[in-house]
Write a structure and sequence with these properties.
Isochorismatase_Nicotinamidase; nicotinamidase activity; two-stranded parallel sheet; alpha/beta; Rossmann fold
Length: 220
C-alpha cells in the first residue's frame, strides 16, 4: 500500500454532515452510516491536526422536503428554479437533536463548522456552494486564509454531500481526496439503470479526485 504523508499545516480533513439524522434510526438514514464514526475518530486523533465540518441546517419548511410538495413522496424529483431537486424526508431541522454534530465526533481538531441548507428555497449538498451552484457558503474563503492546499473528505453521504463538495473543491483548485472507508452512500437508482454512487465516482474521477483508505494516511 502506498502511504500518503500529510502536511500538518496545509492538509485538512473535511467532516461532511456527520449528524444523527443521517445515522441508522435517524430521519434520513444512510445504510451503515454510523460506521464512519470510528474511522473519522482515528483520523482526527491521528494524522490530521486540523479539520472543518459541515452541518445540514434546514428550516422546518425547507423546499427540499417532500412534505412541502403535496402528492409527492421522498426520493422523487421536482423542478425548482435552480434545476432538478431530489425530495427528502424532513431532516436536520434547525435546533433539533438530529441536526447536531454527532455526539460521538471528537471536535477538538474541528476548527470551523459550515452550516448549509438554511435558505428555504435552495437545498445545499456541497460544502462550498448551495444547489444553485452560485451561492457560496464561505468555506473557500476560510480555507484560502488558512493556507489549505489538499483536502481529504469524509462523512455522509458519499454520492451526495461528499461528492458535491469534492467536485466543487476540485473546480476551485484544491487537490481533493475522498477517504472511502470514512464515507457511506445512499446509492439511489437512476433511470439509466445505474445508481447515484456509480455516477458520482465517475464525475469525481473525471475531475482528478483521488480515492484512498484511511490507513494510507500517515503524519508527515
Amino acid at each position: 500500500m502506498n502511504r500518503i504523508p500529510l502536511d500538518p499545516d496545509s492538509d485538512l480533513l473535511g467532516v461532511i454532515d456527520v449528524q444523527p439524522d443521517f445515522m441508522p434510526g435517524g430521519a434520513l438514514p444512510v445504510a451503515d452510516g454510523d460506521a464512519v464514526l470510528p474511522v473519522i475518530g482515528r483520523l482526527l486523533s491521528g494524522p490530521f491536526r486540523h479539520a472543518f465540518a459541515t452541518q445540514d441546517w434546514h428550516p422546518a419548511d425547507h423546499l427540499s422536503f417532500a412534505s412541502q410538495h403535496p402528492g409527492r413522496a421522498p426520493y422523487e424529483s421536482v423542478a425548482l428554479p435552480y434545476g432538478a431537486q431530489t425530495l427528502w424526508p424532513d431532516h436536520c431541522v434547525q435546533g433539533g437533536a438530529g441536526a447536531a454534530l454527532h455526539a460521538g465526533l471528537d471536535q477538538a481538531r474541528i476548527e470551523a463548522v459550515i452550516r448549509k441548507g438554511f435558505r428555504r428555497p435552495i437545498d445545499s449538498y456541497s460544502a462550498f456552494f448551495e444547489n444553485d451552484r452560485r451561492t457560496p457558503t464561505g468555506l473557500d474563503g476560510y480555507l484560502r486564509e488558512r493556507g489549505a492546499r489538499r483536502l481529504f473528505l469524509a462523512g455522509l453521504a458519499t454520492d451526495f454531500c461528499v461528492a458535491y463538495s469534492a467536485e466543487d473543491a476540485a473546480r476551485l483548485g484544491y487537490a481533493v481526496t475522498v477517504v472511502e472507508d470514512a464515507c457511506r452512500a445512499i446509492a439511489l437508482p437512476l433511470p439509466d439503470g445505474g445508481d447515484t454512487l456509480t455516477a458520482a465516482w465517475a464525475r469525481l474521477a473525471a475531475l482528478g479526485v483521488q480515492r484512498v483508505r484511511s490507513d494510507a494516511l500517515v503524519p508527515g
